[in-house]
Amino acid sequence: MQMMAGNISEMYIKGKWFKVSALDVDGKTIAITGRWLKLAVVRSEEWLETELENPDLCIRELKRQRPNRKRADIFTFTQKLPATRPKYQYPTEWDSVAAIHIASFKEWWEKLPQATRKNVRRAEKRGTVVTLREFDDDLIRGLAELNNDSPMRQGVRNVQYGKSLDQIRKDYSSFLDRSDLICAYFGTELIGFMKIVYRGEVASILNFLPKASHDDKRPANALVAKAVELCAAKGVSYLTYGMFNYGNKHDSPLREFKIRNGFGEVLVPRFYVPLTGWGALCMKLQLHRGALGILPHRVITLGVAARAKWNNVKLFNKPV
Prior knowledge:
Largest sheet: 13 strands, mixed
Helix content: 25-40%
Shape: globular
Strand content: 25-35%
Number of helices: 10
Order of helices and strands: EEEEEHEEHHEHEEHEEEHEHEHHH
Strand order of the largest sheet: 1-2-3-4-5-6-15-7-14-13-12-11-8
Distance between the termini: 34 Å
Radius of gyration: 20 Å
Structural class: alpha+beta
């Protein structure tokens, strides 16, 4: 989710908009992010219809140009499903993508655990109605109520909590020309929202917001079922939902939810090209992977648990 003006790109990262240096190369925008280690990334790569086609040109331009006097240390890009064999000889690692391979809705449904199928049926029996909506003022107001259901989500601060209607309009307005907005209602109340972006034979979940206070009505399961149904009807081969494993973090409630709803791991090649001596050193030390890619799984698990407890302490001790 980004917007471009000259050599400045406005990027949406963890609920906030940031201005970063960028340059346009061969129809793609390359943005430079990071502080102590500057990564050059393909803007909106996860949501583009086509993958990068001329990485050599991008590398040459990144070495030649310094947008806003900033030089990238490492250039990274990935291939797009269903291309899972590396096409290039650059240093390669693997993105663990959470994906459903869709042959038909029936095939997906029959492979689900019995408990998940029951939850989809429970959603309907308990009054959950799933429908497609246009992005209008009424939906924006519903999204505001959905965002404000709780200041916490899955043990971390809800970055959408308390945002204004104008902020919500900006946050959710990307790629509307090739998206479906799936809404789950209980009566007139919006209790779940999913935005899927179509990328040729792949569709990717950009936003997924079930309302925790209505979890008993199983809006999350109903939204996934509707997304698979839409993809099957459109002949889409894959539905993706972020990462399956985040670095060395292998266990989480979200990962379990994905598994129960038919998502599996698909490994897609990601390339890392050092552009400076510092970038080469960081790659040698594996610092480009970040904390989740370096720390052992046990340490990450303890850190996640400690963060959730700390966030709860801050929430309950916050002055009213």
